[in-house]
C-alpha cells in the first residue's frame, strides 16, 4: 500500500492525490505539516531532510519532491497514457511541469501569501502589485500555449503536466484580485472538470 505523508490541503500533496486518482492507485495518507504532525522532527527529517511535504513510502522506497513523485507513480503504475515513454512527448510534459514548479510558482508566491495566507511579512502593496503583474505575465504564457493546443497544456490529450498546472490555475482563480481575462485558461479549467480527482483534489475549496 502506498503511503503519502502530508496534509490534504497542501497544493503539492494534492498533486500526488490527484495523480493517484487518475492512476487508480490505492493509498493511505498521514497528516503532516502545519497544524498537524511537525516536519522538523528527526523522524520526518530522516525521510526528507528538507522538512517538507509530500513524502511517499512505496514499500521500502522513499521519495520526496512532488513532481518527482508523480513522475515516479506514472512510470511505476502503468501511467503511459499520462506520461508517455516517447522522449519528445515526455520532454514536452516535463517542460511544463518544471515551468510550473519554478517560474510560475515564483511569480505568485508573494501575492498569494499576502492575499490568501494573510502573512504579516507579505503585506507590502508594492510587492503584492509586482507579484500580481509577474503572475499575470506567466499566465499569459499559459494562455498562449492553451490557445495553440486548443485542449491541454502539452497537447490534445490530458497529461501528467495538467495536474500541477491545473492546481496552479485553481490558485489563480481562488486568489482575490481583479483577474485579467484569459479565455483559453478559463476554458481549460472547465475542461479539467471532467477529470477523475478534479473535484476532490483541485477545485475542492482549497487554493
Automatic annotation (TrEMBL):
<dbReference type="InterPro" id="IPR010987">
    <property type="entry name" value="Glutathione-S-Trfase_C-like"/>
</dbReference>
<comment type="similarity">
    <text>Belongs to the GST superfamily.</text>
</comment>
<dbReference type="InterPro" id="IPR040079">
    <property type="entry name" value="Glutathione_S-Trfase"/>
</dbReference>
<dbReference type="InterPro" id="IPR036282">
    <property type="entry name" value="Glutathione-S-Trfase_C_sf"/>
</dbReference>
<feature type="domain" description="GST N-terminal">
    <location>
        <begin position="1"/>
        <end position="81"/>
    </location>
</feature>
<feature type="domain" description="GST C-terminal">
    <location>
        <begin position="86"/>
        <end position="207"/>
    </location>
</feature>
<dbReference type="Pfam" id="PF13409">
    <property type="entry name" value="GST_N_2"/>
</dbReference>
<dbReference type="InterPro" id="IPR004045">
    <property type="entry name" value="Glutathione_S-Trfase_N"/>
</dbReference>
<dbReference type="InterPro" id="IPR036249">
    <property type="entry name" value="Thioredoxin-like_sf"/>
</dbReference>
<dbReference type="GO" id="GO:0016740">
    <property type="term" value="F:transferase activity"/>
</dbReference>
<keyword id="KW-0808">Transferase</keyword>
<protein>
    <submittedName>
        <fullName>Putative glutathione S-transferase-like protein</fullName>
    </submittedName>
</protein>
Amino acid at each position: 500500500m502506498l503511503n503519502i505523508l502530508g496534509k490534504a490541503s497542501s497544493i503539492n500533496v494534492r498533486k500526488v492525490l490527484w495523480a493517484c486518482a487518475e492512476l487508480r492507485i490505492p493509498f493511505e495518507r498521514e497528516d503532516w505539516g502545519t497544524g498537524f504532525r511537525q516536519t522538523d522532527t528527526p523522524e520526518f527529517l530522516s525521510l526528507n531532510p528538507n522538512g517538507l511535504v509530500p513524502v511517499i513510502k512505496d514499500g521500502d522506497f522513499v521519495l520526496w519532491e512532488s513532481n518527482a513523485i508523480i513522475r515516479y507513480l506514472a512510470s511505476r503504475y502503468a501511467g503511459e497514457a499520462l506520461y508517455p515513454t516517447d522522449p519528445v512527448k515526455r520532454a514536452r510534459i516535463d517542460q511544463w511541469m518544471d515551468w510550473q514548479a519554478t517560474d510560475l510558482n515564483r511569480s505568485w508566491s508573494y501575492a498569494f501569501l499576502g492575499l490568501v495566507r494573510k502573512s504579516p511579512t507579505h503585506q507590502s502593496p508594492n510587492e503584492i502589485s509586482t507579484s500580481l503583474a509577474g503572475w499575470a505575465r506567466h499566465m499569459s504564457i499559459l494562455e498562449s500555449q492553451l490557445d495553440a493546443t486548443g485542449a491541454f497544456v502539452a497537447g490534445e490529450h490530458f497529461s501528467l503536466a495538467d495536474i500541477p498546472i491545473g492546481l496552479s490555475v485553481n490558485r489563480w482563480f481562488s486568489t482575490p484580485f481583479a483577474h485579467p481575462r484569459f479565455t483559453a485558461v478559463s476554458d481549460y479549467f472547465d475542461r479539467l472538470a471532467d477529470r477523475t480527482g478534479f473535484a476532490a483534489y483541485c477545485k475542492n475549496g482549497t487554493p
